[in-house]
What we know:
Layout: E1 2-10, H1 14-32, E2 35-40, H2 45-51, H3 57-64, E3 68-73, H4 92-102, E4 107-113, H5 126-129, E5 134-140, E6 150-155, E7 158-163, H6 169-184, E8 189-194, H7 200-213, E9 220-225, H8 226-235, E10 242-245, H9 247-259, E11 268-272, E12 278-282, H10 299-311, H11 316-331, E13 334-335, E14 345-346, H12 349-358
Parallel strand pairs: 1-2, 1-3, 3-12, 5-10, 8-9, 8-10, 13-14
Antiparallel strand pairs: 4-5, 4-11, 6-7, 11-12
Helix pairs in contact: 1-10, 1-11, 1-12, 6-7, 8-9, 10-11, 11-12
Bound molecules: nicotinamide-adenine-dinucleotide (NAD).
Nicotinamide-adenine-dinucleotide binds near residues 93, 285 and 289.
Amino acid sequence: MNYKVAVIxxxxxxxxxxxxxxxxxxxxxxxxxxxxxxxEVLMGGASIDVHGIPLTDEAIADCKAxxxxxxxxxxxNTSTSPWYKLEPSKRPEAGxxxxxxxLNLFANLRPAYLYEELKGACPLKEEITEGGFxxxxxxxxxxxxxxxxRKTIEEDGVRKAYDSLTYDENEIRxxxxxxxxxxxxxxxxxxSVDKANVLDSSRLWRKVVEEVAKDYPEVSYEHMLVDxxxxxxxxxxxxxxxxxxxxxxxxxxxxxxxxxxxxxxxxSSASLNETKFGLYEPSHGSAPDIAGQNIAxxxxxxxxxxxxxxxxxxxxxxxxxxxxAVKKVLEDGYRTVDIMSDNMTKVGxxxxxxxxxxxx
Length: 360
Ligand code: NAD
């Protein structure tokens, strides 16, 4: 099989880490009998430098014409880069928001996985993390409080601000289906998180999730209030498989879940639409402080590439192999500087990519 992948290398460490992910993908292709045609697309600062704007119509068209998008990260040093002297709608990040919108990416997936070898970086007590944890946060990305009507007024000399949290049943149904589909590829458990004891939008969320659950008899599901979920994530993260939640709760819980894994350079992510199409990128930024030094950790991007194989191309076996190769490299004691610890072997970005390829 052949797939078309739009590649946005981006800014800062982006080009270095995406190059390693492509190296690993090509090696996986040789082994598992698929090939990828890459189309390089400019976005963010790299696009501003060439076109004067962070995202062109041509770039959007190239992404739409692909089966998936693989991205590094965009943006520069927000205090010193000339990109941040431009008006907000012309800055690098505006390109990413516009691209997400143009591609209708409504489902954001962020795995939080604790590697046995990196347990030392986890801030939780050992008795809690014994045996590790492996969960996936599925966050609704295009609705809810962040996209609702808002205004600030003054009434009798008192300033007052409104933000509205709205979901219709179709928005809830499409993300819930995505959540249950992902659970079918994992441990078949969904925890739907809401605040149904207070919010109408959460009560509708709960009802629609229950309707969707009927189509997935193999998946067990439960509802959990968001405040309880925030506690359970640090009390007993092992209990979770897929956490399904709305935009703002997901924003907060996904950061909490990723922090308990301990390392920013290891965290992958995906944003999906209603089809198999997705945009895959590391959770971290463009790290301009370490760009061009061959020291950035490429693993988050490599794991994002594995997610692309799994969720956009259904190449689960190849995705499993990449994840296993990452694990093996860590077991063998190799570390980039961000995850370095005593008695381990320090390697650079390229070497880490090569070591993962060797173990595929
Ligand atoms: P950042 O994630 O880029 O960096 C935070 C810290 O983590 C830095 O010290 C950096 O060196 C380190 N780090 C990040 N990724 C690493 C990796 N793979 N290996 C080793 N160390 C790594 O966050 P920031 O400094 O707040 O932002 C820098 C730029 O990235 C800004 O312009 C910001 O807007 C942008 N950004 C982009 C995205 C995206 O493209 N989706 C996301 C977040 C931030």
